[in-house]
Design a protein that fits this description.
Elements lengths: L2 E3 L4 E3 L2 H11 L5 H24 L1 E7 L4 E7 L5 E7 L2 H11 L4 E9 L13 E7 L8 E5 L2 E2 L3 H10 L9 E8 L1 H10 L3 E8 L2 E2 L5 E2 L5 H6 L3
Parallel strand pairs: 2-11, 5-6, 5-8, 8-10, 9-10, 10-11
Antiparallel strand pairs: 1-2, 3-4, 6-7, 12-13
Helix pairs in contact: 1-2, 2-3
Bound molecules: 1-O-pyrophosphono-5-O-phosphono-alpha-D-ribofuranose, uracil and magnesium ion.
The site of uracil has 9 residues, from helix 6.
């Protein structure tokens, strides 16, 4: 079973996903390998979403020799992927290999780390840019961000995504590494979303970093520190 149902999330358990995430965690993995790893992980997660959540339908196929029955993934033309800048950019590049015809939305969201976490364990989030495609009831929406820490970013992003359609249900939140606090926060505020992740880590440190995590995904992919 490639996707395992846990109480707080669905775990993507494909062996290559675990292998790729382990390379991403390694402090010795430098920028290029880190970015490529995020692309690869996005592709694997995309394939797993297709396999575990979308299913196939039978279609009639004419081979060069005779007519037969084949299978086609259902709903591949009705996928929306939301890229949460900045760390999700390489992750989304990988997802697009699985969903090449997806409509894409972009939301630039950043944690105000200087302000720090408030007493409820939330960061103030600055949103600089929002450009979303029209989302229809038929669409499967995947909001991708490799890191789900306190969940402050994802909750703010989902507020924007669902502004026009608050009851929208065909919704996946996809991350590579999640902290229990973030899963809890997003799960409570957006019970209609299915939370998908490759790993649920142990806890958040005092600066809101996931432990053991993989460090700062944006900084490692973009070499900003
Ligand atoms: O769950 P949260 O506590 O909100 O943390 C997760 C967010 O933090 C990181 O982004 P960051 O703010 O570092 O911006 P960046 O992607 O530009 O590096 C990460 O990419 C998530 O978007
Ligand atoms: O551990 C963390 C937490 C937030 N953002 C990251 O990139 N890493
Ligand atoms: Mg971010």
């Amino acid at each position: 079973m490639p996707i395992e149902d846990r109480d707080d999330a669905y775990l993507i358990t494909h062996a290559l996903a675990k292998d790729t995430l382990s390379k991403l965690r390694d402090v010795e993995t430098e920028q290029v390998a880190f970015r490529k790893g995020l692309v690869k992980l996005g592709r694997i997660c995309g394939y797993e979403i297709i396999d575990g959540a979308m299913g196939t339908e039978y279609v009639s196929i004419q081979t060069p020799l005779e007519e037969t029955t084949g299978e086609r993934v259902k709903g591949l033309d009705n996928v929306v992927i939301i890229n949460v800048l900045r760390a999700a950019t390489p992750f989304v590049e990988g997802l697009l290999k699985a969903f090449p015809r997806a409509k894409q939305g972009v939301i630039s969201a950043g944690r105000n780390e200087e302000a720090g976490m408030n007493e409820d364990g939330e960061f103030p989030i600055t949103i600089d840019y929002v450009k979303l495609p029209e989302i229809s009831e038929k669409d499967t929406v995947i909001v991708a961000d490799p890191m789900l820490a306190t969940g402050s970013t994802m909750c703010t992003v989902l507020d924007h995504v669902l502004a026009e359609a608050p009851d929208y249900e065909n919704l996946f939140v996809l991350s590579a590494v999640s902290a229990p606090d973030g899963l809890l926060r997003v799960g409570e505020q957006f019970p209609q979303a299915d939370l998908l992740t490759v790993a649920i880590d142990d806890y958040l440190d005092d600066d809101g970093y996931i432990i053991p995590g993989l460090g700062d995904a944006g900084d490692r992919a973009f070499r900003t520190k």
